[in-house]
Amino acid sequence: MTRTLTVVSVGGLVTVQDRGRFGWAHLGVPRAGALDQPAADLANRLVGNDLGDAVLEATLGGVEVTVQVAASVAVTGARCHVRVNGRSVAFGEPVSVPAGARVALGRATEGVRSYLAVAGGIMVEAVLGSRSTDTLAGVGPAVVAAGRVLPLGAPRRPRALDVPARRARPDGVRVTPGPRADWFGPDALASLCAVAWQVLPASNRVGLRLDGPALPRVQTGELASEGTVLGSVQVPPDGRPVVFLHDHPVTGGYPVLAVVDEEDLAVCAQLRPGERLRFLPG
Amino acid sequence: MEIRPAGRHGLLVELADSRQARALAHDLRAAGPAVREVVPAARTVLLDGIEDPAAVRRLLAAWAPATTEHDGGQVEVAVIYDGPDLAAVAEQLGWSVRELVARHTTATFVAEFSGFAPGFAYLSGWEVSVPRLATPRARVEPGSVALADRWCGVYPTASPGGWRVIGRTRAELWDVEREPPALLAPGTRVRFTEVPA
Fold this sequence. Notes:
Strand order of the largest sheet of chain B: 1-2-4-3
Mean pLDDT of chain B: 93
Number of strands of chain A: 21
Distance between the termini of chain B: 47 Å
Order of helices and strands of chain A: EEHEEEEEEEEEEHEEEEEEEHEE
Largest sheet of chain B: 4 strands, antiparallel
Number of helices of chain B: 4
Largest sheet of chain A: 8 strands, mixed
Helix content of chain A: under 10%
Radius of gyration of chain A: 20 Å
Shape of chain A: elongated
Strand content of chain A: 25-35%
Structural class of chain B: alpha+beta
Oligomer: heterodimer
Order of helices and strands of chain B: EEHEEHEHHEEEEEEEE
Number of strands of chain B: 13
């Protein structure tokens, strides 16, 4: 019996993600990886996987798969209805499914990204040390589509790992000053934190685009492209910030005013267009 | 040298030029403390995933560029000089097309940094500034050899672009199976040679 998972249908962007691709930024390769890392980690723990194992990240519209072997599965992240062979099962808990089972994640009822972990992990070939798909440069496995057959690893542990107490979602995301905060004047961070920014529909794995009052620059002119870190709050000439997420370009030519703490990026991963984001001084 | 914050585990180091940036990046990789990413760019080096920030700051305080440059090896890139902007660039510079090709094939370029896309390197060594297109092309063909300002670059994949395209190559700029995956990794010297179509 081959250990595989077959994709029946996708309701939105579905990709394979693990913890991301490290050490290749100097060659222009984005980090990629699960946008809501704590949710992906939880899904892996619930099925006894290693934290580095790959999962499926489904965006808003859900995904339906069949699993060719009996396995433990778990769904975390954006809350959604989970059905196994048409029967409702618990969200956020390990569920044992029989060989041939149809596992369906419905449309997210809140948040954006849901994670499906299967015992053994999604075992596509790693590229440059990671099984993650980066949607910007296209490094890694192809975006998941209906009909795709994904190999599964052998289950690692018979039981779920101890799950740490869930941290309450903070009110906003903590920031520290970025490398070009001086482009925006001495009160720039306060101005950034004073606004309840609105998430725009153009947001994706590359960045969270925000709407609100333009942040004025005190320094004009061009900035030579320079390296940027995950969580960078970059401000283009129109004054509206973009929060860099996991598929962000390695270099950028717009000044970075602040950087969001990596632990708080999960908040950004689950914000819908129209919802609000606040920055908190770090 | 100026050091700026870049998140809780990162620093952006500002230097005089790309040669210094490349030298610092090389020295940090070769003998420096644990840093997960070292990203040189036009005038900066980004350090990310720093395990011991104090050790890094000490190293930076003591650093000076060596007088001899590290040798990153040489790559020859075969080019068919028939790009859509070839004639226009030659005319703009007051040269014949043959002279433009001669100058491009005799110059020695150095890959200074990447970042725009995997496999794309900004090559220094072109001495005459070439302005970008006023309106970027929606699509530049993969393998396009192009100029902008005093940079030369080769597009590893199709993408929008405003650089002036003077030729094309069949060389594989990016191959994840190869070590290193980028043909023009930072520090590599590059020579272009002319081949027929």
